[in-house]
Amino acid sequence: MPDTPAEADTAIDMESWVCPAPLRDSPNIVMGHGGGGAMSAELIEHLFLPAFGRAAEAGMGDSAVLDVGNVRLAFSTDSFVVKPLSFPGGTIGDLAVNGTVNDLAMAGARPLVMSTAFILEEGTSLDDLARVAQAVGTAAMAAGVKLVTGDTKVVDAGHGDGVYINTAGIGLIDERADIRPQRATEGDVVIVSGDIGVHGVAVMSCREGLEFGTTVASDTAPLHGLVAAMIDTGADIHALRDPTRGGVAATLNEIAKTADVGISLDERTFPIPAEVRDACGLLGLDPLYVANEGKLLAFVAPTEADRVLTAMRAHPLGAHATVIGRCVAEHPKMVSAKTALGGTRVVDLPIGEQLPRIC
């Protein structure tokens, strides 16, 4: 019991968390809490939100929509701790820019400005840092976003992995767009913009020196141009998400829960490159749970799906867009997949992360 009124005011009431396993069963943070799966969701729902209280807005999504005067802005923040700093197809630098740009794009926003904060480990090579910083600048210029403020901190040797990057971004939402996960509805077609599982396999291949007979390069890319092309069709796009941590499976489960719909997938339509499928088979991974950094999932009405698909396939980042499923009235809040053998399996929210530290 606290001894003074001041201590009583600041005492942490852990019982108010009403937290289910695995969070309550784990008294310390584990890697799974950062994986974008069930443990991440429980940490937010049962620790952060109760602790924040009324200071927290209800959304708490990848980006917030803010009404400022006569315009709508999207605001997002993210942190990047990928290991190693460089991998086939990218670096932590361009990943930080593209990841932030994409969080804004999933609200239908054109990115305007970003902040960048670097947490550096003592002893990190200045040449390595220069390569990361160059990648940040190059990616920002390619995305048309301005880097307007930032910060630098240094931590003791042995207390980091060279470079961590925190970002925040602001974008202007297209006035024609009302894109949010709550709008996914029964009958909607689920479209993925291209091959899945590529980024996670690219990072995994170089992290442990694994070789799969061919080089798998990360798909990291800014998606706001693709989203703009989709909006320009005039179609009413209900929801967009980029399936990063936890992959396609985690993202679809989050949308199914938020919109209170069921999602039914067809495994035969999944665009999984042979090298990704082979790597996942070798390591016992499900490609649906492997991270992506340059792909999006779109929910649109069936009457507008062909129009959106045509626009996506005309864009370099959507050339291999395909329909992988639909929203259904059955099994609300649940994702299922029809297998190649004709059976059906549940595609559940992952507990943690198959491959941590991928973004």
Automatic annotation (TrEMBL):
Protein name per the record: Hydrogenase expression/formation protein HypE
UniProt record similarity statement: Belongs to the HypE family.
Record CDD domains: HypE (cd02197)
Residue ranges occupied by any PurM-like N-terminal domain in the UniProt entry: 61-173
GO biological process, one term: protein maturation
Limits of the PurM-like C-terminal domain: 186-331
Annotated transmembrane regions: none
Species per Swiss-Prot/TrEMBL record: Mycolicibacterium rhodesiae (strain NBB3)
